[in-house]
Amino acid sequence: MPLLGNTQPTQAEILSAELAKAKARLDAHPEIPVSLNELATEAGLSRFQFLRAFKAVTQLPPHAYRLQRQLQMARRLIMQGHTLLQASLLSGFADQSHLTRHFVSSYGLTPGSLSQSRKMQYFPALK
Fold first, then answer.
1. How far is CA 111 from each of CA 13, 29, 38, 44, 100, rounded to the nearest angstrom?
2. What average pLDDT values come out for the chain (127 residues) when binned by 10 residues?
3. How far is the C-alpha of 124 from the C-alpha of 101, rounded, in Å?
């Protein structure tokens, strides 16, 4: 018996490490599509085990989590001065209307209005 207790990682710790890898993958590159099968295989779980565990950790299923990260990326790109088309394509959306539909649903305003407010902030003479 070891002096400092059990040195073997528990199943929860292994699961947390595998879920952390999947979450990190989605955080790092939300613009790259990834299937539930890919994420589950990398984690060494069935699709259903992975889905339940991921949702328990993040409060969102993987697809919704990725979508939120894509929207955050698009918002950041718009605020950096990218066009709406550039922001939508760089963040992994199929087209600008796809970005707009999800953006309005999540943030309650269009990406165009965000872009316009950004311009007004930096160029008040345009008002």
1. 40, 21, 31, 38, 6
2. 57 72 94 96 92 92 97 96 96 96 95 86 56
3. 28
Distance CA 74, CA 98 (A): 12
Which DSSP state fits 32?
S
User: Could you tell me the CA-to-CA distances from 118 to 58, 65, 82, 95, 110 in Å, in that order?
Assistant: 31, 26, 11, 21, 13
Q: List, in order, residues 6 or more apart from 84 with CB less than 8 Å away.
A: 78, 96, 99, 100, 111, 112, 115
CB 78 within 8 A of CB 115: yes
The gap from C-alpha 51 to its chain's centroid, in whole angstroms, comes to 15
- For the chain, the maximum distance between any two Cα atoms, rounded to a whole number of angstroms, is 74
